[in-house]
Amino acid sequence: MKNILMTATLLALPLGVTACGKPAEAPKAETPTDAMTDMAMPAEAKTAKGTGTVTAIDPASGKITLEHDAIPAVEWPAMTMGFSAKPELLKGIAVGDKVGFDLTVTGNAGEVTSIQKR
Fold it and tell me: How much is the pTM?
């Protein structure tokens, strides 16, 4: 009997009534602030400066790979990683060039916003 009552209750709830025939209470609506509290928000964009060596470049797709020194402003250790960059910034830059660069970093991704040979 309990299973029948439970099944009837589960079937009736989407219809807005309980198994006893009483109207079901509407679920409490969350305010936008309550809903956003539990969401992971993207990290705020930061700017940083770095130095390194160009290890790969693809101006057509706007990608450059740099073996860079530590970048304290974004708490990155020295490593090799790819960045996006506007193709016009990459003109005159070649694999093996030592460079200084500016970045805009959002989360773990960075975009080279300026680059100069050293």
Answer: 0.63
Burial class (CB in 10 A: 0-12, 13-18, 19+), 110: buried
Rounded CA separation 117/114 (Å)? 11
> What whole-number distance in Å separates Cα of residue 63 and Cα of residue 20?
64
Catalogue the long-range contacts made by 65-72 (C-beta closer than 8 Å, 24 or more residues apart): 66/99, 66/101, 66/112, 68/101, 71/103
**What is the amino acid identity at position 81?**
M
Q: What would the two tokens of residue 29 be?
A: 């609506």
**CA atoms of 92 and 116, how far apart (whole Å):** 9
Least confident of 84-88, 105-109, 111-115: 105-109
Amino acid present at 114? S
Q: Strand 79-85 vs strand 46-58: parallel, antiparallel, or unpaired?
A: unpaired
Angle of CA points 15, 16, 21, to nearest 5°:
100
